[in-house]
Amino acid sequence: MSEFSHLEKALKYYFGYDKFRPGQQEIIENALSNRDLLIVMPTGGGKSLCFQLPAILKKGVTVVVSPLIALMQDQVEALQKNGIAATFLNSSLNFYQMRSREQYTLAGKVKLLYVAPERLLSEKFLPFLDLVHHQVGISAVVIDEAHCVSEWGHDFRPEYRQLILLRKRYPGVPVWAFTATATARVRIDIIQQLGLKEPSIHIASFNRQNLYYEVQVKQKNAYIQLLKLIRETEGSGIVYCLTRKRVDEITLKLQHDRVSALPYHAGLTDEERSQNQTRFLRDDARVMVATIAFGMGINKPDVRFVIHFDIPRNIESYYQESGRAGRDGEASRCTLFYSYGDVKTIEYLINQKSDPQEQLIAKHQLRQMIDYAEATDCRRKIQIGYFGEYFPGNCGNCDNCLYPKPVQDFTVEAMKFLSCVARCQQKFGMNHIIDVLRGAKTEKITQYKHDQLSTYGIGKDRSVEEWRLLGRCLLHQGLLEQTSDGYAVLKLNSLSWEVMRRQRQVFIAVPVAEKMSWNQNTSKAMEAQMLFQRLRSLRKKIADEQSVPPYVIFADSTLRLMAQVKPQTKQELEKLSGIGSHKLALYGEQFLAEIRNSCQESSVSQQQQPFSAADAPSTTELQTLQLYQQGLSIAEIAKKRRLSPTRIVRHLCDLMEKNQSIDINPLVSSPKQQKIWQVFDVLGDISLAVIKEYLGEDYSFDEIRLVRGKWRQQKRK
Ligand code: ADP
Ligand code: ZN
Question: What pTM value is reported for the model?
Answer without folding.
Answer: 0.67
